[in-house]
Amino acid sequence: MNHRKGKQTIEFENPPVIISSAAIAGQKEAQGPLRDSFDCCLSDDSCGEPSWERSEAAIFHQAVMYALKKAGQQPEDVHYILGGDLINQCVSAHYALRNIGIPFFGLYGACSTMTESLSLASMLVGGGYAEKAACATSSHFCSSEKQFRNPLEYGGQRTPSAQWTVTGAGCCILAGDGAGPRVTQVTTGKIIDKGITDISNMGAAMAPAAIDTLKVHFNDTGARPEDYDLILTGDLGVIGSDILVELMKGEGYDIAELHNDCGKMIFDIEAQDVHAGGSGCGCCASVLCGHILKEMNKGVYDRILVMATGALMNTMTIQQGESIPAIAHAVVIER
Amino acid sequence: MNHRKGKQTIEFENPPVIISSAAIAGQKEAQGPLRDSFDCCLSDDSCGEPSWERSEAAIFHQAVMYALKKAGQQPEDVHYILGGDLINQCVSAHYALRNIGIPFFGLYGACSTMTESLSLASMLVGGGYAEKAACATSSHFCSSEKQFRNPLEYGGQRTPSAQWTVTGAGCCILAGDGAGPRVTQVTTGKIIDKGITDISNMGAAMAPAAIDTLKVHFNDTGARPEDYDLILTGDLGVIGSDILVELMKGEGYDIAELHNDCGKMIFDIEAQDVHAGGSGCGCCASVLCGHILKEMNKGVYDRILVMATGALMNTMTIQQGESIPAIAHAVVIER
């Protein structure tokens, strides 16, 4: 058990390397501040496909193919691909990968899927079970609105706390050796439900899970916030981020200057009228696999903690009066 | 890479041990031939809960608690729990586990989830990342019918090729050492889509994935069918099983005498009027974690291959005219 550190954390003896990553972004995302970091910006969010589900599968597939190409790898060089998405029964991933020929582990972690896949893939590579493994996830504004809220044509109003599902996908390739940032630690979250029932306020529902995982991480590793150049959450957005920073301060950890959130970074919140910020599996995926890993490779960050958070309800459980369980998985990436 | 054997198979140097397992079954399942193998048979499929989704979460939770108790373990002794279910966004697992406090990796593999979770958990335990890990999944006839087909009150007719979703759940606990059967090999499936579009014939949609994984397993390991006492599929049912046996014969592997299917075993097919047999994540879970592992512990089987299969569409993709992608994950269990 020499990999284990504390209750919920793994520290790798041979940290897997992120040898490549790729990010695809939609039209609105391409108008945001991170536009130059994406490998491909859609000029048409439909990708020319006849349904939004097919469009999402197309960007999922594209992200994987770009990441493989950038790594100089063929699909047969990759032992596993791990990932999923938000659409019922994770069909974006399944239709995207049905011809690719890579052994597949399907995951569902809602918007935490990017770091869930990084956590598991790191253990598969670190444990010598795979030479290379791919992690991928996606979300699409139009397929998500249709499934979780209203058809776009309905033109429903959004509350100020609502977040905007990112149209985007990201994929990274992990390997046992090579050049690139390394995944050095993994802290796996528990399901936390603090009784939030407002599905237009996902940030508030997910923040308690983020707080739980971050506290456990600091306890398990003995690290302090200042040991990181960046503490990046997946898509807490403006409201969830404020809750995280405020409540972590109450726990004795001041992360205010070190924290950012992919949902706050991907859009110009005011100018692009996205209310509380971006969300969706593709939010963390496209920001991490695009902007953040590029910045790490440039030397802007040496050591970061990335923690994607997921809200684990469905539309029916909310109609049945249930509250929203949530989860957060953290990975430490070092240059 | 000394764990790898061939293209898609892992062979464990220190095979993880299944130290306990538990199975919960519904009322109809408790009238079938395996009634004596379940740890708990429901006298009321609702479990006294106000919704079928809550009922399914209840049996998921029960399976985990029974397995922990039989292993003499508390939740805090288990480093990870891996699992999921068929309900949109895997809410049965999420609501079942929201108070349990075990770090959670959510999986979606449709009816392949039981062996997907066994595969990943075996690598986490085998790799030294967890001392103990739990694998769990569930399905419920009433929550599945409602979501995938029609509300029960509708009284829709079923085609002869239709399968009956099992009300059941199963959980097993893996450990680095201890007494019990061991997971010695894992062969991970690719997503295979042979163009089947009939959602009332899941067996036919999933059989090609089962054939692909089984062929790869034999190629990777050099094993022959006769090296196993039992080749057990998850829920191909009567039609899918016939396709598997027939097409494997064409590939040079005669598995007719060695093959059985959880969907055929759990019901008395004719007397219980279940058409092509049982299905659902809970089918393989309850048959494996109940009957099969008990038989292994008794010495009936020494070496078995278990391969759960999953159909990876959703109801909407079928309405959109898509075919059904499928996957099959195999694990070898030895006494």
Q: Could you explain the architecture of this structure?
A:
- The structure is a homodimer of 335-residue chains.
- The first copy, chain A, has 335 residues and is an alpha/beta fold.
- Chain A is 32% helix and 23% strand.
- Chain A has helices at 52-70, 91-96, 113-126, 141-148, 202-221, 237-250, 262-265, 281-298, 315-319, and strands at residues 4-5, 9-11, 17-25, 40-41, 80-85, 104-106, 132-139, 164-165, 168-175, 182-187, 230-233, 259-261, 278-279, 303-311, 326-334.
- Chain A has a seven-stranded mixed sheet with strand order 1-2-10-15-14-11-12, with helices on both faces.
- In chain A, helix 6 (237-250) links the parallel strand 11 and strand 12.
- Chain A is globular.
- The two termini of chain A are 25 Å apart.
- The model of chain A has no long low-confidence stretch (mean pLDDT 97).
